[in-house]
Design brief:
The chain has 492 residues and is an alpha+beta fold. The protein is built from 21 helices and five strands. A hairpin with a 4-residue loop joins strand 1 and strand 2. The model has no long low-confidence stretch (mean pLDDT 81).
């Protein structure tokens, strides 16, 4: 009991320090994930002396954090932003993973003298781009929708095939002709389970009249966690099921959607902070120095050979311009996921696994620092940033159960064709009306002659029967202006 206040105090101090580290990292252009690792190292045996060396527990907690990170990634990924990148994203997360494993394994077999199975295991551990690193760095790097969609889909999906490959290679079992069928089953079943939980969760949440707003985010996250659990119990890919369930839920008309996404984002940050601090706590600086050369060699192979080759070969059918391929090759961010995957063979006592874990630590630190801090400048150099790109309008809804109506909260983004439209020209269906406009922090009741502007926030009250039609009309005018109907824009 006496130790509980100390434990909670240290935990609160670490969390607060990590949150403040986000602001520091943004100002310095330094990836905040490395600061979390540094906090863990300072707390560890070489700093304040906290001894932690349980790889099985680290693996379990790491996977749990990864589930929450993928949940946040799926919920906050806009389908409208990634649907045009669906083909390339899926290929990058499957075919490119296989190519990367083979190329990395062959190179490390030759350069480091590893036996073939261990070399391919290194390749499998390093094949997955990291969802936490991508979601935290990419969305602030100013990348256009097309490339951002590819990379978000890749990082959300490719954990699943990489995890399967690590499990197979670490088990020591003989690989036979049935392995591709097993992989296809696990991915297909994970996809189906994720779609099922996403759809069922959406239907249940839209019909439930929960007594408190804060229960909706909790229920949404619980659905995604259940998707992971069900996937694993069905011997399918629980990681893929988690991301897909989050993607379906996040792009559905959920009650209090804005609150849910804010909660998921905070939970994702908490998972990232906890995971990287834990991994820093597990790391031993003395061992890292011993594996500095193998880690740098593996990093160079991944960054300069395996990643560019896997991108170029897997995306051949899509004929992407060289500038986009160059950016995709550089943007294969590695973070906590490779370290968590490396814990699997270590927890099983595989010979050489400790060296793999330590080398991956070195690689992640170097690549995160190198790639994470240069993505924005590289995008501008290659003229791939999204300067001037119009953003999709934000619409959030909350049910007014006793009134049989819904409240829509609309934020008009910069570049929206709603700018300059008179309220009378909005032509919402009967049963829907704009009740309040908030502009520059001040609210007013609009008239038919009121003119909408960029950055305005609107409150729209609509009956349940016309709620969808009202949102579609708002989205249509956002995309095509006051003559949206004549231009064939439906808002869907």
């Amino acid at each position: 009991m006496d130790g509980l206040p100390v434990l909670l105090g240290v935990g609160g101090l670490v969390l607060l320090s990590s949150v403040l580290a986000v602001r520091v990292s943004i100002r310095l252009g330094f990836p905040s994930l490395l600061l979390y690792l540094a906090i863990g190292v300072v707390l560890g045996e070489s700093g304040l002396g906290i001894h932690f060396d349980n790889p099985a527990l680290t693996q379990s907690l790491g996977l749990a954090a990864l589930v929450l990170i993928l949940t946040e990634g799926g919920l906050t990924t806009r389908w409208s932003s990634v649907k045009s990148s669906l083909g390339p994203g899926i290929v990058l997360s499957t075919v490119a993973v296989v190519i990367s494993i083979v190329v990395t394994g062959a190179a490390l077999h030759w350069l480091l003298g590893l036996d073939w199975r261990l070399a391919l295991l290194w390749g499998a551990v390093l094949a997955s781009t990291d969802a936490a690193a991508v979601f935290s760095v990419l969305r602030s790097a100013g990348i256009g929708k097309r490339l951002s969609g590819m990379l978000e889909l890749e990082s959300g999906i490719n954990d699943a095939p990489a995890y399967i490959a690590v499990i197979v290679l670490a088990s020591g079992d003989a690989v036979d002709w049935s392995l591709p069928l097993v992989v296809v089953y696990e991915l297909a079943a994970g996809l189906a389970i994720g779609l099922a939980f996403g759809w069922l969760g959406t239907q249940a949440l839209r019909r439930a009249a929960l007594p408190a707003t804060g229960l909706y985010p909790l229920a949404t996250v619980a659905v995604c966690v259940l998707a992971y659990s069900s996937g694993q119990l069905a011997h399918a890919s629980g990681l893929l099921a988690t991301y897909v369930a989050g993607l379906v839920l996040g792009n559905s008309k959920l009650p209090h959607r804005s609150d849910t996404l804010s909660f998921a984002e905070g939970l994702g940050w908490l998972a990232q902070i906890g995971l990287f601090v834990l991994l820093g706590l597990f790391a031993s600086p003395s061992r890292l120095l011993e594996t500095l050369v193998p880690g740098l060699v593996a990093g160079a192979v991944v960054l300069l050979l395996a990643r560019p080759l896997s991108v170029a070969l897997s995306l051949l059918p899509f004929r992407l311009p060289w500038r986009e391929q160059a950016f995709l090759s550089w943007a294969g961010l590695r973070g906590a996921v490779p370290i968590v995957l490396a814990m699997i063979p270590l927890s099983q006592g595989l010979p050489g696994a400790q060296r793999l874990v330590d080398a991956v630590f070195v690689l992640v630190i170097v690549l995160t620092l190198l790639q994470g801090s240069t993505l924005g400048p590289l995008a501008r150099l290659l003229r791939l940033d999204r300067a001037g790109e119009v953003q999709e309008i934000e619409v959030d809804s909350a049910p007014l159960d006793e009134l049989g109506a819904e409240l829509l909260q609309v934020r008009i983004q910069k570049g929206s064709k709603l700018h300059g439209v008179y309220l009378s020209e909005l032509r919402l269906p009967a049963g829907a009306t704009v009740s309040l406009v908030v502009r520059s922090g001040a609210g007013f009741t609009p008239q038919k002659t009121s003119r909408l502007q960029e950055d305005d926030q609107l409150l729209v009250v609509a009956t349940e029967h016309v709620r969808e039609a009202a949102e579609l009309r708002i989205r249509a005018v956002d995309r095509a202006g006051r003559l949206a109907r004549w231009r064939g824009e439906s808002g869907r």
